[in-house]
């Protein structure tokens, strides 16, 4: 069954997804993810990063979907860095509208040495799209390396800004 060329299953799913994101309640009251602290922008980003690292570890240990692990790890790194910037610099969540801005801002704010900040930005720029879109097949070694990097970045950031223990890690 379709609506013109659009399968009904897809149009119905779009309507349901829009309802879910808009919290209209057609599908019932929303069930918010446990472990996300949405009190402030920085706590929201920090706890989302924590969930992404945890999710990447679960997927990695369970079935090794390397593409998913790598993408979750890049997301966790970015959310962790955003949390730091939001907490330490007075930035606003709206300041981070692309994947490059957060790395440039962290480099400017000296969270890491110039080498580390630049290396993180280059790793993201050279490999995130490449592993996601290009013909390269992600490897176990890439997934493992990204998981360890995401955990290290998140732990460093959380240790610096999370004195009250918002994270579940």
Short description:
66% of the residues lie in helices and 2% in strands.
Structural class: mainly alpha
Q: Please tell me the total number of domains.
A: 2
Profile the largest sheet: 2 strands, antiparallel
Radius of gyration: 18 Å
Number of helices: 6
The run of helices and strands is: EEHHHHHH
Please explain how this structure is put together.
With 169 residues, the chain is mainly α. The chain has helices at 8-22, 41-62, 66-89, 101-109, 114-133, 140-161; strands spanning 2-3, 6-7. Strands 1-2 form a two-stranded antiparallel ribbon. The chain is globular, with a radius of gyration of 18 Å. It starts with a strand and ends in an 8-residue tail after the last helix.
SSE topology sketch:
Layout: E1 2-3, E2 6-7, H1 8-22, H2 41-62, H3 66-89, H4 101-109, H5 114-133, H6 140-161
Antiparallel strand pairs: 1-2
Helix pairs in contact: 2-3, 2-6, 3-4, 3-5, 3-6, 4-5
Keywords for this entry:
Four Helix Bundle (Hemerythrin (Met), subunit A); mainly alpha; 66% helix; 2 domains
